[in-house]
Amino acid sequence: MRSALTVRFITRRFIGDYDPTLEMIYRHMAVIDGEMVHFEILDTAGQEEDSLQIEEKIKWGDGFAVVYSVTDRCSFDEVMRLCFLINHIHSSPKRSSGSEQPPVVIVGNKKDLQFDRMVSTEDGENLSKALKLPFYEISTRDSYEETVVVFNTLYQELMRQGHFSPGSFKRRTVSKLMEKIPKMQGSSTLNSAGRSLSFNSFRDYIPE
Ligand SMILES: Nc1nc2c(ncn2[C@@H]2O[C@H](COP(=O)(O)OP(=O)(O)OP(=O)(O)O)[C@@H](O)[C@H]2O)c(=O)[nH]1
């Protein structure tokens, strides 16, 4: 999950500049279909040094937004590999939440940058058809609503699969994840319309 998209969803604001190496887990509550939903969003930096790191992150997730930039062909080329990896890792017999694959949404971001586009809408649609996954082209910069659709889709698919009751909060233990991912960040705050939102980091998830 990419920073601008995650932060747009959480704060409704588009914040342009991030340290690309930042890796955070954000907690966020949103009302979807009249239910209060607790999200825990791992915003990956996409710089996994080894396959074990990426595997741990994929194991941790219940649903996945695989995001590429329509201005970056390489990021699009990574989508298929990541989708296969997610399926592969979650099809292990140890998967506790049943046999269905976890929800995955393919997201083509930055559609506002029309003149820098390197990946057509059709390319995205074809990939989504081939992988049988939902697909959205969005602009995190221009639209808060489009980011909401991504998260709503993942939530609704999880509900459809019946892994969670509405409103339930599946608190996770991430101590193992912490061991595997040394580049942790401390909590930071961001002012949003006069409010201060706390962005939780891995540290907040040390099991009591
Ligand atoms: N024009 C435009 N810029 C965007 C959009 N989303 C993100 N950006 C910008 O793209 C840059 C990277 O955004 P991130 O959210 O960090 O995404 P990322 O996957 O780390 O992207 P890269 O650094 O390009 O790999 C930032 O400068 C953002 O401001 C968008 O929808 N439109």
Amino- and carboxy-terminal Cα gap: 27 Å
Q: What molecules are bound to this protein?
A: guanosine-5'-triphosphate
Mean pLDDT: 78
What's the arrangement of strands in the largest beta sheet? 3-4-5
Give the overall silhouette: globular
Helix and strand sequence: HEEHEHEHEHHEE
Summing up helix and strand content along with how strands pair, one would put the structural category as alpha/beta
Instruction: Note the main sheet.
Output: 3 strands, parallel
Beta-strand percentage range: 15-25%
What percentage of residues falls in helices of 4 or more residues? 25-40%
Helices, by number, come to 6
The number of E-state strands comes to 7
Gyration radius, rounded: 17 Å
- Give unreliable regions as ranges: 179-208
InterPro entries: P-loop_NTPase (IPR027417), Ras-related_GTPase (IPR051065), Small_GTPase (IPR001806)
GO molecular function, one term: GTP binding
EC number: 3.6.5.2
Family: Belongs to the small GTPase superfamily. Ras family.
